[in-house]
Amino acid sequence: MGYKSSPRPVFDRPTHIPYAEVTRHVWGDAGAGLVDDLIYASTDKIHQLVFGLAGGTGFKHSEDYRTVFGADEVLYVLSGTFGAANPETGEVRIVQEGEAIFFRKDTWHHGFSLSDKPVRVLEYFSPPPSTGASGVYARTRPYLEQSTYRQERFIGRWPMAADEEKQTATIKTLRDVDLLWELDPEDQGVITGLYAATEHLESGKTTVLPGRKSSMITRKGDECLYVLSGCLHVLCPDREGQVWFELNPGDGFFFPDGARHQYANLRGEPASFVFGVGPGLGDKGA
């Protein structure tokens, strides 16, 4: 069976996406491996999913499933130890739970569970597949015939060449110390660290402390989020019908371009979530 595109769930208004209702999809073949996707949203501006790998398994690429796309991507590790590799350059990144990676257009990538435990990874992708940036784009790229997981050019120069390796890396590892941090202008108990802020994708992690709430937010692109921990309340004041939503870990939420919204924490523990906005053009303001 050849390449088959993934489902593309879309929404026309602010929408709560409970974990139990997320669209399921499996992709791959004997050459690429099999990957279990949970696709939260796939609009014409943003693509959010969680993919899973069984312990000790991984994905590579094949003629039908070429893992090189025309998009900016952020991958955040939800659980397990994830090995991310660029098989063209030999780069390898070991990414633990709570850490992320970022890479840009035309970056070949493979992924592996580096223990006997499953790996779950949250992924943001923009421009999204609906624009032709995934499988359609991949089939236009020269096929990578051989894969390597070793950077030979640094052998004999390590660790003296560590700065060069960091500057030329196609896959960036992002830990909390690497994020671009900011505080909400109205309530400094809402803390955000950005993983990426490019022309295509803005992605970050936000923590709302107990009893705090964000300013009213309006984005210039579609936004989708994933709750990591705690209980997050979302207000969509202009939505018809229900305007308050309660989100728990594993739930998602989608906001179309221009939809006003606010985050609040009405419980006694911090609430944290990761978000992606496409295109990455910042806020319009309230």
TrEMBL record:
Residues 73-123, 207-274 form the Cupin type-2 domain. InterPro entries: Cupin_2 (IPR013096), RmlC-like_jellyroll (IPR014710), RmlC_Cupin_sf (IPR011051). SUPFAM superfamilies: RmlC-like cupins (SSF51182). Signal peptide: none annotated. It comes from the Bacteria. This is Cupin domain-containing protein.
